[in-house]
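User: My advisor asked me to double-check a structure prediction for AAA+ ATPase domain-containing protein before group meeting. I don't want to rely on an old file, so could you generate it fresh from this sequence?
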Amino acid sequence: MIFYHRYDRITLDFYLSHIYHDTNNMIKRDILAKIMPWVGKEKILVLKGSRQVGKTTLLRQIESEIKGCQQTAVVAYLSADDLDNRRFFQSPDALELYLRQRYGFPGNFIYLMIDEFQAIPNAGIFLKNLFDRNKKNVQFIVSGSSSLEITKNTEFLTGRALNFMIERVSFFEYFKYIQNLDIEVLSIEREKELRLFYDTYPQKLEMAFGEYLKFGGYPEVATTSAVDDKKLILSSISKTYIEKDIINFLKVENVAGFNSLLKLLAEQSGKLVNKNELSNTLSMSINTVKKYAEFLSGTYVVNFLKPFSSNLRIEITKMPKVYILDLGLRNYLLDSWNSETVSGDGDAVENFVYLTLLARRDAESIRFYRTIGGAEIDFLLEENDGSLTSCEVKYREKISGIPTAMKNAKERYPQKIKRQIIITKRTLLIDKDVWFIPAVLLPFVKW
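Assistant: Sure, here is a fresh prediction for AAA+ ATPase domain-containing protein from the sequence you gave:
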């Protein structure tokens, strides 16, 4: 089915490339259900995420939902990243004049979508002033790809804005898309249904899992079939990120050093990060390493996972672990495309598990556990009720019970750790509060 979109004519490139789009080739994002209840409310909606994770597509989906409920609704789109639009963002008065001339403001209520809003000078104050003057007549729905700038700007929007983190396409969303399925996440208590689902789609799940481990969750990559095209898109994403975010926006001068750091972190995915060692390896000052690491985290390319600590004498490590936020980007950086190598890569699977957990919960609720003796649990999850869930990745054919580190942690914190999850290759077993779950099945399980 083809839809016609009435976006801003002045943003010509956007208009020509999006005047038609095939909704059958769009992955419906689960976060849409969290955003839509706030559409039409007196709130600024802020969609945060890396470049090319589908924020613009999500704006189009929001527009389609709005038009589905209100056929006469007025939806305007502007990209703050577009040089042709800079004049509209010179002042609140300039933008109001544009809306008046183009969309009949303030007579018509307008849903104004601003892409890459962090490119607006003093964006937070700019939006605050516009919101305070026009909240009865305009709802601002904005996107941004730098948490460094978004955090700085949204400080001015306290009480006015709601933030939504837009991740890459999850494996759950990807599998639903390629199989054209309408399914829900299954509760762990529904073990029979879970096992039935696993037994119904074994080959399809494994094939999709291998593809996802190799090429990741950037929407354009996920919706492209040809392998060479997927690689080309990942190359383009990487180069665009370096050019737009790192060189132009963050003004990094030592681009070669920045790239070397990114590749080193990709190699260390799932491992402890010693920034002093990185400094020595790269012949780069420790302050520069820290700054570049902050840039990588702030532009949603990597996350640094903090250790859990309640007993500093026992759990002493302060070093974080690092995870790349897209597996396709990781493999592009490492030039690692062999299917058998990737699918059997325990580090890649651990990274996948982290991304799956991140898609369901706040990043701050995820930690890892490590003792002075070196015993480690991959993930320690803080639940809403204050309890803890320990999670260890053992991606192998045979599992010989609960790992020792998990047993010891349970003995140390018997009242806190309520459940233990072992991520396996194929073993599915639910035994009270000890769960053995195949990695490929984890995205379909909730607790």
